[in-house]
Amino acid sequence: MNQPSRKRVFSGIQPSGVSHIGNYLGAIRNWVLQQEQYDNIFCIVNLHALTLPTTAETLHANTITMANTILAAGIDPERSILFVQGDVPEHAELSWLLSSVTMYGELRRMTQFKDKSGSDEESVSAALFSYPVLQVADIILYDTDLVPVGEDQKQHIELARDVAQRFNSRYGETFVVPAPDIKKDGARVMSLDDPTKKMSKSDRNPASFIALTDTPAEITKKIKRAVTDSGSDVIAAPDKPALTNLLGIYSLFAGISVAEIEERYTGKGYGAFKTDLAEVVVEALTPFQQRFAELQADPAIARNVLADGAARAGAQAAAKMQIVQERMGLSQHRT
Ligand code: ATP
Ligand code: LTN
């Protein structure tokens, strides 16, 4: 088993539309903050994005946009591998092999499938159901120790642990058992129009999320219109889910504790707080947006990064797959 001196981090993100501040605060920002500390692989999971209807043109454009989002957020391709899942065929291959050690009942219990299929099980793809197995393959293919993700992915990482352990006990020690890396703050940013739901890019109402590419005017408007709780005190409390969410966003973007912000707005009401929150978010996103625009104007940069990333990830994946095939009795007969 590969034993690098630094812990291996792996995480993935779907190229399915615009990224929002939930994706940033819950995942991408932590990847950047921990970049120096770990040996990192970040993957744009285009095969996962096929689980819901899309088109070739959309998926292709979204893949480059996602690469530019990750690069503009501060991922340095010299320090971290950034690649596209479909460029390394071992992901799909290992997914099939692991589906033989994953129980049907385990997949049926996945809450993301239940949420995304709703009452429509007849017309959602079978891929949406088997999606978590592909995610397990992504993770354990690279001897991953840590998986930095938002709270909604916890159940999938637990499945990865169970499947890795089951494989190891059936076929001998082969995979590192990964651990989730979910932060206390920012792991579940809530929707602006309903603080009981997570902020989500598939939400039909674009006012429910702040996209990383929203203009200052759009950000300000969305924050002004964000749902608040009854009362007028700017405090975080269990019976104030909307303010708790907005305070959390303020705190992470401004780098100030929630307690300090509460103190700053004592007696000032929601209006003043929201005006300043909009400014904080706009200011925090401005450097990102400038870099993102430059990268979007020159897609050759992302293409080069992704080609290099696929070569580096592919070499590791191929070596691991050879071991897996031998363990499972699938050694090649081709000459
Ligand atoms: P959708 O909401 O449409 O299912 P998504 O916004 O969750 O999509 P993904 O590509 O599936 O987007 O997630 C990328 C990363 O962002 C994951 O690590 C996920 O846990 C994290 N994430 C997504 N939404 C939030 C949120 N509201 N708060 C914190 N982290 C989030
Ligand atoms: N399922 C995840 C995306 C994802 C992922 C991964 C995250 C696919 N493969 C591997 C971490 C590790 C999502 O929808 N957010």
What does this entry look like structurally?
The chain has 335 residues and is mainly alpha-helical. The protein folds into 2 domains: 8-187 and 299-328, Rossmann fold (3-Layer(aba) Sandwich), CATH 3.40.50.620; 206-294, Tyrosyl-Transfer RNA Synthetase, CATH 1.10.240. It is 54% helix and 7% strand. The chain has a 3-stranded parallel sheet. Helix 3 (56-73) crosses helix 12 (269-297) and helix 3 packs across helix 13 (299-328). The longest helix is centred in the C-terminal third of the chain and has 30 residues, at 299-328. Residues 10-14, 45, 48, 135, 138-139, 147, 149, 153, 156 line the site of L-tryptophanamide (LTN).
Give a quick summary of the entry:
This protein is mainly α and 335 residues long. It is 54% helix and 7% strand. The two termini are 27 Å apart.
Q: Which secondary-structure class do the elements indicate?
A: mainly alpha
Output the CATH homologous superfamily of the largest domain: HUPs
Global geometry = globular
Bound molecules: adenosine-5'-triphosphate, L-tryptophanamide
SSE series: EHEHHEHHHHEHEHHHHH
For the record, the CATH class of the largest domain is Alpha Beta
> How many structural domains?
2
- Rounded to an integer in angstroms, the radius of gyration calculated over CA atoms is 21 Å
Strand content: 5-15%
Strand order of the largest sheet: 1-2-3
* First-last Cα distance: 27 Å
Q: If helices are DSSP runs of H or I spanning 4 or more residues, what is the number of helices?
A: 13
User: Largest sheet, if any?
Assistant: 3 strands, parallel
Mean pLDDT, all residues: 96
Helix content: 40-55%
- Give the second-level CATH assignment, the architecture of the largest domain: 3-Layer(aba) Sandwich
Uncertain runs with pLDDT below 50, 5 residues or more?
A: none
Q: Please name the CATH topology of the largest domain.
A: Rossmann fold
Number of strands: 5
